[in-house]
Sequence to fold (485 residues):
Amino acid sequence: MDLHRLTIHEAADLLRRRETSSQELTRACLDRIAAVDPAVRAFVTVCADGALQQAGEADRRITNGEATPLTGIPAAIKDNMCTRGVRTTCSSRMLEGFVPPYNATVVQSLSDAGMVMLGKANMDEFAMGSSTEHSAFFPSRNPWDRARVPGGSSGGSCVAVAADEAIYSLGSDTGGSIRQPAGFCSVVGFKPTYGRVSRFGLVAFASSLDQIGPITKDVTDCALVMNAICGYDPGDSTSLNQPTPDYTRSLVPDLKGLRLGVPQEYAVAGMQPGVESAFKAAVRRLAELGAEIEWGAFLPHTRYALAAYYIIAPSEASANLARYDGVKYGFSAPEASSMWDALEKTKQAGFGAEVKRRIMLGTYALSAGYYDAYYLKAQKVRTLIRQEFDRAFARFDALITPTSPTVPFKIGEKMDDPVQMYLSDICTLPVNIAGIPAVSVPAGFVDGLPVGLQAIGKPLGEETLLRIAFAYEQSTDWHKRKTPL
Ligand code: GLN
Fold:
């Protein structure tokens, strides 16, 4: 049996019945990484010895009857979450040699649940990008077509799962970075409500938007990981003090009684016809499953979301990235003649072009004289977008959109045109602006390339989204298709 191809729930069944061991499962994943990672490059760091040791501990725990559904299951962690003793680079030269002395809360929660950590996944530098081409080390490749991007910024995390290198992974989503690559790689990606998952130990990009979430092979696995990572953390001042439900209870295969809105504003110019027809077919399927569907215009300010995002996110990034001054940790330029010279040289050599672009955009938007015209105005647009979602959710249980207007694009295609790259997140980033949850599930293929379906929910509406995602998934076989690798 190809153990690396299993889902969490399938693997956990075998482990419970002692038909395999975590060590066998972990070896199968490490062998798979050795075989296919040179072709797709999902990992920045592979922790073979640590993983096998954790697998041994998990096997003892299983024998003692102390297993959780995640005990002994191998995972990949996006390289912007701190892992004690394991290099955490953010795919940046700036943090190339940074070894955190502590675990992010999510990493600790998964370790407590018995995770086997295979390694750290490649990403766009500091999570800025939509293709993983902005990694300072190397681009990751889409396992469905290696000439194409896997999406980003959690590209490595999604490739690792789609290529069956890891059974599941964690990503982070500031403007679509879990959902867009999940759609491009045909896996499930969930961005929870802002504050639902602790960000303690997540390297900050845009603090009012960042959120961590699971990337999995199916919706059942998504619920299992959510059960382990959601919940209050006093270490994160934005963490919501709310009880965590058992998300597996939302996995029911019908949608009777649910009202779903399909906002016309997401039928953006530039949407590929193949994506549009796959999307329409998916909406018809939701209706067949018992949902009441209404097409209409509910979100008129969506067209300003991208502009507002590219003021707010870079502004926060420019503040967050000021800490990389080469003094306390991270890269430090040698041979500087003064403190200012050291600072300049460190940032010049430590950051890549996209990160520098964001810092300059943000510093400009926040500077005296421009603050009101840009940053304050963007915050006002943000309020309008939020209110508009609130009004829509007075009528609907969830909203349904494509995850991205296109299928995965070719490597290099958008590298010289940042605005084209930014447009890849047009359907996902309004969700971060409003702080609400959303999920992307596999919804078909156009000429062999994946398409994702996005469901957007009200604040703390994770359960409804899992129900929609599960019912849809169970009525299709998209999630069972395997990459040609
Ligand atoms: N692609 C968007 C950006 O470049 C979103 C990134 C993210 O969600 N981390 O900012």
In short: Residues 306 and 423 are 8 Å apart (CA to CA). The chain is about 40% helix and 15% strand. Residues 372-395 form the longest helix (24 residues).
